[in-house]
Write a structure and sequence with these properties.
The protein is 34% helix and 22% strand. By secondary structure, it is α+β, with helices and mostly antiparallel strands. A 5-stranded mixed β-sheet has the order 1-2-4-3-5. Strand 3, helix 3 and strand 4 form a beta-alpha-beta unit. Helix 7 packs antiparallel against helix 8. The chain is globular. The mean pLDDT is 95.
Length: 362
């Protein structure tokens, strides 16, 4: 009762403290291995060591705390979430799953459970700094591609250099991978959509992670003076991008209400060059992502929408190119763990609501 409430309140207070550890004053922005990450690690280390956990940082910057009480078996349960953020993030995205995992270790200790638990604060899941997500969990699952170490951020800093500046050794990333001594992984994450709030339910069990595909697309035309170039002679890359974006929204909105319920597609970023009010845009680079439970339908839509972009570029006399950044398959959660979670929810007197996760790292 009261002790549990106190734990919950402490976890929430810590999330609010961590929200102040930011690259940007006045809003929470904490990209992969940027300076505020050190402050987050210091707070987490303090909390973990107070519970007698052994704390380490692996070569990709995941902070890992291991609790192995007397009598614990060889296999451990993994808990945790991520500590990087999107720009202007909420206080609980990712961090809540780390802080409450640490509180769960405290509860397990009080109950004298002979269970080894490792809490992982993943260094990167959002993909904000290098344009590709899941760097922390790729290392843990043994799927980190060393070729990414050469990638540069917006300031020209390679991933390799960023890791070394943080005090890490990229050559040891392989050592971060888990072996077969793991029982499973459980993550608590705030729902980033409105479903539970609308239904007045505090918790649900995620049964699958929606697949997603991400691309960068570029329209290339001719930069020209806005006042002296007549409309029929323009090769306006930004206008082409706008036409395509509108077409994407119209088609996916229709599909979501008819043939493919739940499908979503987003263009969240656009960079026009030279980006001046009195110059026709010579190029427009845009991000595009599409998420849906059916991989076949997702790939069908991706192919169609890119064909639409090519047709728009051709009709307008523009160059067009695209690069795939991510193709994440739909993933089912472990049924045994999901069943146990649903039983726990029922035991607390709540309906065992299940949801798909639209956030790739959940």
């Amino acid at each position: 009762g009261a002790a549990m409430k106190e734990r919950a309140e402490r976890g929430i207070a810590d999330c609010r403290r961590i929200a102040l550890m930011t690259e940007e004053p006045g809003r929470t922005t904490r990209r992969f291995l940027t300076e505020p990450t050190h402050a987050v690690h210091a707070l987490l280390r303090e909390r973990m060591e107070a519970l007698g956990m052994k704390v380490t940082i692996d070569a990709v910057g995941n902070l890992r705390g291991l609790s192995r009480p007397r009598g614990a078996g060889a296999k451990r349960l993994l808990l945790g979430s991520h500590i990087d953020t999107v720009p202007d993030a909420g206080a609980f995205d990712g961090v809540l799953g780390v802080m409450l995992a640490i509180e769960w270790v405290g509860i397990a200790r009080e109950l004298r459970m002979p269970l080894a638990i490792e809490v992982i604060a993943f260094s990167e899941e959002e993909g904000m700094r290098y344009g590709v997500p899941f760097l922390g969990s790729r290392a843990v699952t043994g799927t980190f591609d060393a070729a990414m170490l050469k990638w540069r951020d917006a300031d020209g800093v390679t991933m390799d250099a960023a890791m070394r500046a943080f005090g890490l050794n990229p050559a040891k990333i392989k050592d971060a991978a888990i072996r077969d001594d793991v029982l499973g992984f459980v993550e608590l994450h705030i729902e980033q959509g409105p479903v539970l709030e609308a239904e007045g339910i505090p918790v649900a069990v995620v049964e699958g992670i929606t697949g997603q595909t991400r691309f960068n697309l570029r329209f290339t035309g001719q930069a020209n003076h806005a006042g002296t170039t007549p409309m029929h002679l323009r090769r306006d890359a930004l206008a082409a991008a706008a036409e395509w974006i509108t077409k994407v929204e119209k088609q996916i909105r229709k599909a979501a209400s008819t043939t493919d319920p739940g499908i979503v597609a987003t263009v969240g970023r656009i960079v026009a060059e030279p980006n001046a009010g009195n110059v026709i845009a010579g190029s427009a680079e845009i991000s595009f992502e599409i998420r849906y439970g059916s991989s076949a339908a997702r790939h069908k839509w991706t192919k169609k929408l890119i064909a639409d972009a090519e047709a728009i570029a051709k009709r307008r006399g523009l160059g067009f190119e695209w690069t795939e950044k991510l193709d994440q398959q739909t993933v089912r959660m472990d049924r045994r763990l999901s069943s146990m979670l649903k039983s726990a929810v029922k035991a607390c007197g709540y309906p065992a609501r299940t949801l798909p996760s639209g956030a790739g790292h959940d």
